[in-house]
Amino acid sequence: RILDLDLVVRDEDGNILDPEQTSTISLFRAHEIASKQVEERLQEEKSQKQNIDINRQAKFAATPSFALFVNLKNVVCKIGEDAEVLMSLYDPLESKFISENYLVRWSSCGLPKDIDRLHNLRAVFTDLGSKDLKREKISFVCQIVRVGRMELRDNNTRKLTSGLRRPFGVAGTPGV
């Protein structure tokens, strides 16, 4: 019935009723009874699913806002130049970012540019509401952008290619 296919009428034991040996009226009544039973079962399952959805929505409505705390300890990636590390939340099903970027400028020697923030690289992604929690998947994405010359091996200082932003790498968590 769910697939909109032809229904096969069966007796109480689950055997298919043979139209050659069952009267037309008996076959019709058995078909009516089977159709009602299938319809009732579909309605039960539908109402159970709605109750689960209502309970889930009520639970999320009780807590209107959530936050995700991120503490960046280190970036282990041999870049050779200054870099920018951008962290954000991403919805892979809608193919869009759902938060703003948290930016950390990383120096070529492997430390944050702002040395005062060495062990204090923290971000809080706030205002994650019930809509965000209902998403099937949310990924945490970290992008690395190299800032410097066009070519890493280019030692020619006459070329004015310093300070260019080039994508270098990306990492992410699987959708959670």
From TrEMBL:
It holds the Pfam family DOCK_N. It comes from the Eukaryota. InterPro entries: DOCK, DOCK_N. One of its GO terms (molecular function) is small GTPase binding. The keyword Coiled coil applies. Transmembrane segments: none annotated. Residues 1-161 form the Dedicator of cytokinesis N-terminal domain. Keywords: Coiled coil. Residues 28-55 form a coiled coil. The keyword Mitochondrion does not apply. GO terms for cellular component: cytoplasm; plasma membrane. GO terms for biological process: cell migration; myoblast fusion; small GTPase-mediated signal transduction. PANTHER family: DEDICATOR OF CYTOKINESIS, DEDICATOR OF CYTOKINESIS PROTEIN 1. This is DOCK1 protein.
